[in-house]
Amino acid sequence: MSLIIQFVINGLMLGMMYALVAVGFTIFFGVLDVIVFSHGDTVMLGGFSGLAMYMYLQHISPELAPGWVLLWVALTALVSMALLGMLLAKTMIMRLRAAPALNTLLATMMLGTVLRESIRLFFPNGSNPQPFPHLLPDWSLEYGQLSLRFDNLVLFCAGAAAVVLIHLLISRTRLGMAIRAVAQDSEAAQLMGVNFSLVVLTAFALGCGVAALSGIMNGIYYNEINFSMGLLLGAIGFSAAVIGGLGNIYGAILGGFIFAFLQTIGAVAMPFSSAYKDVFAFSVVIVLMAWKPTGLLAEKSSQRV
Amino acid sequence: MTTHLLECTGLSMRFGGLMALKALDIHVDSHEVVGLVGPNGSGKTTFFNVVTGIYHPCAGKVMFDGQDITGLSPQDVYRAGIARTFQRSRLCLDLTVFDNIMIGSHKRLDLSFMHNILHRKAFLASYREYEETAAALLRALNPDLPSKLHHAVSELNMIDRRRVELCRALIGKPKLLFLDEPSAGMTHEETQQLMDEIVGMETGEAKPAIVLIEHEMNVIRRITSRCVVLNFGEKLCEGSYDEVTADPLVQEAYLGTEVCEDEQL
Amino acid sequence: MLTAVGITVFVALFLMAEEQATILLYLGSGLLLLLGLKACGLLDVLLQAARNNERLWTRLMLCMSLALILLFHEDHYSLFLLGTIMTYSVAVLGLNVQLGYAGVINFSAASFFGVGGYTAALLMANLGVPSLLALPLGGLASALTGCILLLPVLRTSGHYAALVTMAFALLFRVFLEVCPWFGGPQGIPVEGLNVFGLSFMDDLNIGGMDFSFYAQYDLFALVLLCLTFGFIRRMERSWFGLSMDAVRGDEIASACFGVSITRWKITAFTLGNFIAGVAGAFYAMMLAYISPANFSFSDSLLFLSILLLGGIGNSWGVLVATTFVVALPEKFQVIQEYRYLIYSAIVLLMIIFRPAGLLPRRVRSYTGGMA
H or E element: which one contains B29? Predict the structure, then answer.
């Protein structure tokens, strides 16, 4: 019984992390109709920039209270990734707007490789997994045979808070309305006075900031990060966003949890090798695409014939 | 009782909650030129799309040349003898003029492995024949075009592209030709030119029946023998151009109703 | 003709050069020469001449390849490099049929390459299938594996199609590593090619000259490449090629003119996979070993980037790009570590600034070249 609960908790944590990555994918698609495949590597970079800040803090003031450390680390990751996102949007994505969408997908895949290799080559000891600091207290709540780690709880709540914040931003603010307008019809939105560039930059900042958060969460949860974690995470995030319907933020969140759920089932059903869970999860994704070629919550699009 | 070439009875098409076509009864006879007119959104292109198999109607029947073609795939409809052009010129821009026209002749192409890969001499011989045919068709429309037979379509201007589209539709020797706003994107002079070419074209044995969607009323008046007016998916009326334009319902559809003086207050 | 000789001499010298400085010199001068030619318009003249006399050009290239093999007759490494270039070219030509002609997105090309290799390896090891037969059987296995993906591939397009094949590429690698039949992450050894009793694993001695055993592989690869290249060129210059391009160009319009979208997508996808499978089977034999490391998603991306770099839809572009991608990092030892980084950056810039590739695809000419 407790094993099942353990699996459930694990699944929820993974789901939250995937959901945050998927949200980024879906925001970028909504706003510009592009798939930014390097998003997984943005997560990785978020983790690494947080780590770099941690190492720097350790160096200059090792007695700093852990609360402050956590704050600084998270803030660095968020801000640096938001800035990176905006840079990316301005220099690359906007430039490729006129080209077929596949070009942006391929270009961002290449970018992802560039980011990955850069970390591997230029970060000290980059090719090995880097231990990530315990930024949250190590308590656990014991309940019979079950132990619930405090930091997991905090992480989950942080993720949930991020999701709620995004929801509020998108649905209650003027900026959110602008984002939704651009997502529906960018030309009409511009004609109505929406500042397209601002919306795009904000969307990218938002998506990448959330990715950074996911990166930090990843680091704290697994106590380590490594340069290659972005590739699989990107593929999973993309899958999750598609499952939930590209352009639909709530769908993306749902998709993230669905993917984690699939992985958990795979791990439970085929205990002889944990790697099979990925085989299972991706196979289901393929079957799902065969059944519903545009995702579970289908993308609203039509061609003029 | 003459059998019509194309006979649609009770044709209906729904998109979610929107009834795009409402129990349409339309017929076209051989060699006729019929104009299909109506305000934007009245279902003209949808009608084409349903008959050519791009959409499946939710009710009704389409009989073509004695065959029931309701709900057939676009490929089968083409093989039955209906060809069309598109409102938004759908040519493969990176392919040559010849390539695009050949697509229109697809049902006649020998698509066997032997012919294409192994019997190269035979293939080249049939290729030369097709080249001649395509050039002849083009020449009838614009004597300059055959020289651009092996240029990419992206190099051509709008009216030449329309001509290529027309050739693509005609090379398969269809019995019925659907023209969807062929003058879109062209000036008055170009439109006039193109329409003259369409009317004057000698396509050999049998001239196809034509259904023409157009917004330029001059064109409709000049070329068509009969008009069908659609509005909100329903057939409003049909008859000659003069009859149709005099019809009060048609006028209301295009121009709106007169508001009585006292109602304004 | 001069150009062909010039290119071969250049390539030969390049491959022979050991010193890093010399390599840099050759590369630099080669680049300068190219830029100079482009600036004074001579490059376009040369390219046009090559296009007009494609038959002659092809024969010349063939002779030059043979000359290269002769030149490096004892050098295992260079010959192996040559063989790799040719094998990868064949595989990417298959991908070109899928993506360049019919517009079928395939992010798992390396997986089908791997299916061919593993099939050949297992058939030869466990069932004693003769190696010559194992080649087409490897191709067949790839084609059949592709059929599993047919339904999702046919129903999806754009991003969604990318996702389907991406998912397959990811799960394939994992599947190879965990499934015990495939020898796990270490892989399995593969028998060498054996044509009618002549084992390709032994060194040769012809007319007093010693040949590395790789020379035989190279000759076989050359034959394979020529066959594939010729077949694909001819197919492109026929109604087959036209139909595939029509499917890629505009599905709805083509359907309205009788083109069966399904039939052509299936043909292109299956054919491409078959070609990749045969190439994979051959590669396994040449390598005498096969392991999952060569068939990951990154490798599929590599194949895709080769295609993009060379010019999507252009068969000659494939050859040029493969040579560039395979030979350059191997010779440039100093950048070995950085090759993925540099390479991805180059392709990235290429996509942004020159998406048509190094040799953009020309319009179809039914009568050119090997017709």
Answer: none
